[in-house]
Amino acid sequence: TQLLEQSPQFLSIQEGENLTVYCNSSSVFSSLQWYRQEPGEGPVLLVTVVTGGEVKKLKRLTFQFGDARKDSSLHITAAQPGDTGLYLCAGPTSGTYKYIFGTGTRLKVLA
Amino acid sequence: DADVTQTPRNRITKTGKRIMLECSQTKGHDRMYWYRQDPGLGLRLIYYSFDVKDINKGEISDGYSVSRQAQAKFSLSLESAIPNQTALYFCATSDWGLAENTGELFFGEGSRLTVL
Fold this sequence. Notes:
The complex is a heterodimer.
Chain A: E1 5-7, E2 10-14, E3 19-24, E4 32-37, E5 44-49, E6 55-58, E7 61-65, E8 71-76, E9 85-92, E10 99-101, E11 105-110
Parallel strand pairs in A: 2-11
Antiparallel strand pairs in A: 1-3, 3-8, 4-5, 4-9, 6-7, 7-8, 9-10, 9-11
Chain B: E1 4-7, E2 10-13, E3 19-25, E4 31-37, E5 43-51, E6 54-57, E7 65-70, E8 73-78, E9 87-94, E10 105-107, E11 111-115
């Protein structure tokens, strides 16, 4: 069974600090996605990474896919209160279009 | 109007009752999913469907059933609700993506179910 584990589970930081969230698996994924979910809403896609070693940037957010395609990280530079939310990684199980999700990282950025 | 609409948004029911959560989408996607969200557990897949004639079990299908009435409609039923089915339920659709297995999931706003 393919699993995605995220760390840390909770993170509370001050505005302006940097942080990294990790998504790890013992299985290879053909792609990984990162979603952000705000209270009362469904998750919204931030990025999809496909190639091992790939790095994608979205303003202050940097996403990296591990060389072996078993892990991914999300780095936020100079966090802002608007970054507060639940961050979820997700990926398709091998040979299917069935997406599984990680356990999530709940981020709170204090002003 | 939202692209993926779930009804009801909130429901309180009693143990043993039958409950149906409905989902409709205007995105024209073939693939639809039902997920359950519990604190600390992320989202877990209950059922998924890749077209009207295709229904598949996910990680936690026991106690649930689904019906794909049309391309745009996918409903989730709890035949006899129990308290540990109290959770936030999400319907999602996805496109095929530019490359294999890169489709984006589009979620509804969720249906919060409480079973007493």
